[in-house]
Amino acid sequence: MKDIAVVILNWNGKGLLEQFLPSVVEHSPEAAIYVADNASTDDSVSFVKTNYPEIKIIQNKGNFGYAKGYNEALAEVEEEIYALVNSDVEVTKHWLAPVLALFEEDSETGIIQPKILDYKNKTHFEYAGAAGGFIDKYGFPFCRGRIFDTIEEDIGQYDDNTQILWASGACFFIRKKVFRELRGFDPDFFAHQEEIDLCWRAFNKNYNARFCYQSVIYHVGGATLTTGSSKKTFLNFRNSLWMMTKNLPTAKLFPVLFIRLSQDGLAGIRFATKGQFGHLWAVLSSHFYFYLKIFHFLNKRESKQYTNYYKTNSIVHLYFVTKGKIFDKNFNNSL
Hints:
With about 325 residues, the protein is α/β, with parallel strands linked by helices. Helices cover about 35% and strands about 20% of the residues.
């Protein structure tokens, strides 16, 4: 058995598999490769069977989304390291070796993210993960190399293997024992921010997440839900509130949630002034679902949460008021 499994979740993605599987097969000799299929109705499974008989196929019984889809599939994968890779990712030569070396040198590192660059603009970081993720005090995620819609050119400014809070689900490495100890992704999330929730839970159990700059991949992004999708807005706002309910330290839980809900209200007003009423409804709907299931998620809280989960007090204030458009190594809180 090999040490690492590359697991690609697929749903009706034959075109993406045709385009991106060749790079994964060519550049992953260290890995066993799996395609986990979420009950596709196209012929993507038959395409893989015909053209890549060496790839192992796991067929889920329904379209379970990212979270439950991976949970179901990874129950059948026994390699010690999981590499969860989106179907719209192009990998590069030797992308796995530095990740495996980083896991080997630090037993407390449970999660690793590679450098994620934009497939359509390969000199720049890609929105979903860039050079590793953090959150602010109120749960807003941001990355080194990408804050809100400002995306930096990669000129080596983040070439280190530093500790981060969260790794992008576009290309997400995790030890099998850590994934199973944490009981995988929260299936209630379906998609979006489930990887941040998982990383936050890992952080509260003293596992490190690290960035590995020597490993480089290119991500298309938006292949499932586009950036402008109101459904994506709904999932991001709802799941963020659920994630905070589960993981915030007890003393901060309700004060921080109150301020975050108020900030969401301002975001809704901003959508309305721009005529983006679908996004306004998405924010309102996300709050309805949050209140509907708040006790369910309070019951998911673990016994221990750390107070130093955030990198800065308010990324919203920094970005929109003080014009802090790029990541600042001198943010006031550090992990």
